[in-house]
């Protein structure tokens, strides 16, 4: 791994002021130990130092020899060393060995702590710490989903927007579905319904969906849950369908589809209930996400959850295709762009 060494910061580490002058003299030995340790660990150190260091260090001849041997590189004249180090680290995708927090550059260089390797010298040994984990921009998944759904809505598609986060249980889902279909106000769990629900055996298979079933069923219930609750919701899907059918006296059980929803908190649920003649079998558009390098892996890993969220909120049976692409033009964590293009059947 390429590691840029903040030469001045390392050379001044642990040095105490002179009792008479109060001056702190940087140590060439400490800098050499740091370089030796990095190489021993298999890293590629690139030592950068500001111009004053060659005049202040304790072994000037030794330091100048290292410059001649290209073991140390002074930053260009007129350049601020810290800025130069940070800029090079981001350009080369390298780590930085330094105990400097670079606070004055936090606005320009995002998430510096994930690149910075802290260090210490203990019992004569040079010890290198670990960088902080990269910061994730809060709610970036929800922001991507919101912007994507706005794109669909701008093209005339209805979007289910409720984010009430009702407390999740199979019985609560069934009660909510019955209330919604009957266009009733929310009320407490019906005791009689609870008895009916508990007597129905758990149906291990999700209610299937084929053209004939869509035509026979009056409506489809999309159960929107947090990914952590997906398995539990799937386990209850068949029982929910039968409970709703029996309570409402329907000829056919409604179709129940469980969808991961990135707007829903763990332990909560939302329902998007759509009449069968309004169901879109395929997503009318697919989604392209252009994302910064810092968030690329995270968003790529969650691309199916994004697709599931869009399908559940739009009321489409099949998921839209979600393509995630990194962009060098997006330098800061949290930056992204979305666009939709025609998909499915025209």
From TrEMBL:
It holds the Pfam family RNase_Zc3h12a. Residues 2-142 form the RNase NYN domain. InterPro entries: RNase_Zc3h12_NYN. It comes from the Archaea. This is Zc3h12a-like ribonuclease.
